[in-house]
């Protein structure tokens, strides 16, 4: 009935996206976080919805805003919250793109009271968080699973290691080496590696441009 909408390449597809940082509580007023702006994940969500997909966007604390009928935003705070939300939605989606900068470590104990400065040093014990992406790779059925890799050295080798270890269909290597690429910038320089280890290098682009390239690549791969 609606020819134009039927031609949207992701119409009828459900996509799960994670975005932003996570905050790991130390005490009632402090946390461990990182500089992720959430922009990359939000751009992927918008580009997906504009191609007709129904998007669940699980996001850590960020200033990003989106208002789109096809995007359902699920705000979370900690790595554990994000893990729980991702597992809640994963079974029902066709594609999952995990772009969040999840904390790798979290305080072993959260102090119920504000920590006072009445000592000269303070040691926090941290424990490793659950790897959300790896855990989804272990249970995935038909889902097309995409991860990111943020690397500063041995980039290709490390990214391919993550692709294999986490059972991904595609990994987006984000180079922090390049000027104008990374966390707080408006642009990214990415390389895609698929499960056949085919490597596609892209130019430095806006995050919206990277999102377009990524969805074009995913559509190509799921149609192949
Ligand atoms: N990731 C995740 N859950 C975590 C840590 C990472 O889902 N607890 C995901 C990220 O969203 C990203 C991918 O795993 O898609 C790779 O994250 P990255 O930080 O580059 O790699 P790690 O596997 O955490 O390893 P390291 O930080 O030691 O390089
Ligand atoms: Ca990490």
Automatic annotation (TrEMBL):
Residues bound to CTP are 104, 114, 148, 162, 166
Co-factor binding comment? Binds 1 FMN per subunit.
Which pathway does the UniProt entry assign to this protein?
Answer: Cofactor biosynthesis; coenzyme A biosynthesis; CoA from (R)-pantothenate: step 2/5; Cofactor biosynthesis; coenzyme A biosynthesis; CoA from (R)-pantothenate: step 3/5
What are the DNA/pantothenate metabolism flavoprotein C-terminal domain coordinates in residue numbering?
10-220
Keyword Secreted among record annotations: no
**What are the record keywords, sorted?**
Decarboxylase, Flavoprotein, FMN, Ligase, Lyase, Magnesium, Metal-binding, Multifunctional enzyme
Q: Its biological function?
A: Catalyzes two sequential steps in the biosynthesis of coenzyme A. In the first step cysteine is conjugated to 4'-phosphopantothenate to form 4-phosphopantothenoylcysteine. In the second step the latter compound is decarboxylated to form 4'-phosphopantotheine. Catalyzes two steps in the biosynthesis of coenzyme A. In the first step cysteine is conjugated to 4'-phosphopantothenate to form 4-phosphopantothenoylcysteine, in the latter compound is decarboxylated to form 4'-phosphopantotheine.
Q: What is the name of this protein?
A: Coenzyme A biosynthesis bifunctional protein CoaBC
Recall the taxonomic lineage recorded for the source organism.
Bacteria, Pseudomonadati, Bacteroidota, Flavobacteriia, Flavobacteriales
Query: Gene that codes for this?
Result: coaBC
């Amino acid at each position: 009935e609606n020819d134009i909408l039927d031609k949207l390449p992701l119409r009828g597809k459900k996509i799960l996206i994670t975005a932003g940082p996570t905050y790991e509580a130390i005490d009632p007023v402090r946390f461990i976080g990182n500089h992720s702006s959430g922009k990359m994940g939000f751009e992927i969500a918008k580009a997906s919805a504009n191609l007709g997909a129904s998007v669940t966007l699980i996001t850590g604390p960020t200033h990003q805003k989106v208002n789109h009928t096809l995007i359902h935003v699920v705000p979370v705070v900690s790595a554990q919250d994000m893990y729980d939300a991702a597992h809640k939605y994963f079974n029902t989606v066709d594609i999952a793109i995990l772009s969040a900068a999840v904390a790798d470590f979290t305080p072993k104990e959260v102090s119920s009271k504000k920590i006072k400065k009445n000592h000269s040093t303070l040691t926090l014990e941290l424990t490793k968080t659950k790897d959300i992406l790896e855990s989804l790779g272990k249970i995935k059925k038909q889902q097309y699973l995409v991860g990111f890799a943020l690397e500063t050295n041995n980039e290709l080798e490390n990214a391919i290691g993550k692709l294999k270890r986490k059972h991904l269909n595609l990994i987006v290597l984000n180079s922090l080496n390049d000027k104008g690429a990374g966390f707080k910038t408006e642009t990214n320089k990415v390389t895609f590696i698929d499960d056949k280890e085919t490597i596609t290098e892209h130019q430095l682009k806006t995050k919206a441009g990277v999102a377009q390239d990524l969805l074009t690549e995913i559509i190509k791969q799921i149609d192949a």
